[in-house]
Every structure is written in C-alpha cells, then in structure tokens.
Write a structure and sequence with these properties.
The chain is an alpha/beta fold. The protein folds into 2 domains: 119 residues, Aspartate Aminotransferase, domain 1; 233 residues, Type I PLP-dependent aspartate aminotransferase-like (Major domain) (Aspartate Aminotransferase, domain 2, 3-Layer(aba) Sandwich), CATH 3.40.640.10. It has 14 helices and 12 strands. Helix 4 runs parallel beside helix 5. The longest helix is centred in the C-terminal third of the chain and has 20 residues.
C-alpha cells in the first residue's frame, strides 16, 4: 500500500465517522470564538497594531537570541508579570508552542508528570516530547490525584499539570486542593490559564489569582489569543525558572520571534484588562444568566456557569445537524467532535462574549430546545 492509498483510506474513515473538518469563517452572532471580552476588534488595539508596525516593521526577522529581540518584548513581558504577580514572564508565538517547550524543557528522565485526563492537546503533546513517566488522573478528581501522587515513586521530580478552566467542558479545576496536595507531596504545579486569563481574579489575571495560590505554582501558561484578543502566550514564573527557558527551551530558541507589533498591541491590552473591569463583570453576568436560562429549559448546567457552555449531544452527526440549524438561524455555534473530545461526547461548545445581548441568548435557548427535541434520538433533558 502506498502512502497515497493509506492517506485516502484514513480520509474515508474520517468522513464515515462524521468527523470531516472544514475551515470556518465567521457567520452570524459569535458564539464559537474565544474573543470573550470582544477585544480583537477594539479600535484602540487596531491602532496599536498599526503603530507597532510603523515602529518595528512587519516581522522580527530572526529568533530573539539571534537578532529578533526588540525592547517591546521586554516591556510587555514585564507588564504581564506585574498583572500576573510573578517575577518574570517569557512571550511565545503561540500557546501550543509554549506548552511543547516547557514540558520538553523541565520534565527529565526519572521524573513523573500527573496530568488531568481532559488536558488540552498541546499539554499532551508536550508531555509526549519529554522523557518523564506519564500518569493520567481522573478529571478534576482530587482524591485520585492524591492517591496516584502517593503511590508512584520516582527518582526525580513530580509535576502536576491542569488547565484552570477547561476549554471543552467549561468547568474549573479545584486549584486550592491541588496546591495543598502538591505542598504535601513536594510536587510542582503547572497551570494552563488559557481560558481564564483576562477574566478571573480581581485584576483579571486568572484563576491562580482568584484562588490565591501564587506561591504554589511552578509555572503558568497564559494564552494571549483568547480573552486578550491578540496572539501568542506568556509563560510566567520566578526569575530562575524563566531564565532556564531562555537558555534551554527549544521551541523558544529555535523559533523566529513573533512580530514586534503584536507585542506592542499586547502592551496596550494589558492595561485595558486591568482598568476595564466592567468587561469581566458583564461576561460573568451573561454566564450566570445563560446558565439559568438553560436550566429552566431543562438542560443540565454546572453549579458555577462559566463563559464556556458545552451542550453534549453524543453522536457526531447529530451534533453537526444541530449546529447547522443554529447557524441557519443566525447563531455561530459549532459542533466539537472526536478526537477533540472523547468518543460519544460530541457537543455544541457555546462560548459567550460581552457583545452578545440578553435577547439573543433568550432566543438561542428557545431555538436550541426546539431543535434538540427534533434532531436528537435520545432525550437528555433533566
């Protein structure tokens, strides 16, 4: 069998499972992006990006350790560290690149890493690149983590890694409990704040701030292309930890630096996050309102609704059918299917943002209930 034949068979299998993916442009009311605070289209950020290009050009032209460094990188890293409450931060082109790099850099042979079963693909792939023993613990299960940490013996270091707000389920990790267990066992806690940074905490720096566990976190990963509205990611920690990444992190050392104009725009948005608390307040209010509406309509909801709301359908074909109906009605809701989520849990991932109106949400819930009742074979209303 040739590689062409094998690839053709793989594509046929993907299509047969109802999991073919297509490029997706915006369509209708945004309920699928991660632009939670509607900053990506803010005129002030657009102007900052334009000004950044005028000052620094279109690209950085090299890695930051060769010729690609600019003063704006130092400035934005310092500003983000102040927001995050850490000694130092390092800016990466993407969150995926950051996760690949930190796990490959810090996890060594003889170490063990304890990873939540629903962690993001970038975390999984970063762990795969390391030489550490991988131990998966049940999603959000404090006692399962404790048991595994206490039963696994290692020669080196133990690491615990979790998202703070999970991207597909919209639930919040029990970070305080994890921090306590890590103190008891001497494990190092790594927290991916991709969907929490910019939203939670008094300053908007994330769930680490909200739970008050700064001193218990080894490093955090903070994506800048979601609530912050721009691109890239910050890895934050103490001075020594970040300096070691500069010296040894392959995905940082051997990558062309991000466009300096992006860093310039991020410098603008960090101040906006701190000063414009009303954005975060509105998002939280919408999350609570939408959760209440769904509950009243008979959908199962979490005790603490967040801006990420999964409606689990089950079969991929049915999830796609419901999403298509919603799109026809003007709501940009997308179906999330395996392998992004586990088999049998295809879902609608509704992500709220501050630009959505209360009336839109009310209309969405009515429409959603009607479509689900018609399209889904197995009823799941509570």
């Amino acid at each position: 069998m040739t590689i062409e034949d094998r690839t053709e068979k793989r594509l046929e299998a993907i299509a047969a499972a109802g999991e073919t993916r297509r490029m997706a442009e915006p369509r209708g009311i945004d309920l699928s992006s991660n632009d939670y605070l509607c900053l990506a289209q803010d005129p002030r950020l657009k102007e900052a990006m334009i000004e950044g290009v005028r000052r620094y050009g279109a690209g950085s032209t090299a890695s930051r350790l060769l010729r690609g460094h600019r003063d704006v990188f130092d400035r934005v890293e310092s500003e983000f560290s102040r927001l995050k409450g850490t000694e130092r931060s390092l800016y990466f082109s993407t969150g995926y690149q950051a996760n690949l790099g930190i796990f490959q850099t810090f996890l060594e042979e003889g170490d063990a890493v304890f990873s939540d079963e629903l962690n993001h693909a970038s975390i999984i792939d970063g762990i795969r690149l390391s030489k550490a023993e991988k131990v998966i613990f049940n999603h959000g299960d404090v006692e399962d983590l404790r048991s595994r940490l206490c039963s696994v013996e290692v020669k080196g270091q133990k690491f615990v890694v979790t998202e703070s707000l999970f991207s597909m389920d919209g639930d919040i990790a029990p970070l305080k409990e994890y921090a306590a267990i890590c103190r008891e066992t001497g494990a190092n806690l790594i927290v991916d704040e991709a969907h929490a940074v910019g939203i939670y905490g008094r300053k908007g720096s994330g769930m680490i701030e909200e739970t008050g566990i700064w001193d218990d976190v080894f490093v955090s990963i903070n994506t800048a292309g979601k609530a912050l509205g721009v691109a890239g990611a910050f890895v934050s920690g103490d001075e020594q930890t970040i300096e070691y990444l500069v010296q040894r992190c392959r995905s940082f050392i051997f990558s062309t630096a991000p466009p300096p104009a992006v860093a310039y725009a991020l410098s603008k948005v960090i101040g906006m996050i701190e000063m414009e608390e009303d954005r975060r307040t509105r998002l939280m209010a919408l999350s609570a309102l939408f959760g209440g509406m769904l509950s009243e309509a008979g959908f199962p909801v979490r005790e603490r609704p967040t801006q990420i709301v999964p409606i689990v359908i089950g079969r991929s074909e049915e999830a796609v059918a419901v999403a298509s109906k919603l799109q026809e009605a003007g709501f940009d809701v997308r179906a999330i299917r395996p392998p992004t989520v586990p088999e049998g849990t295809a879902r609608l991932r509704i992500s709220l943002n501050t630009g959505v109106s209360e009336a839109d949400l009310e209309r969405l819930v009515i429409l959603l209930k009607d479509i689900v009742k018609k399209e889904i074979e197995t009823a799941f209303f509570v």
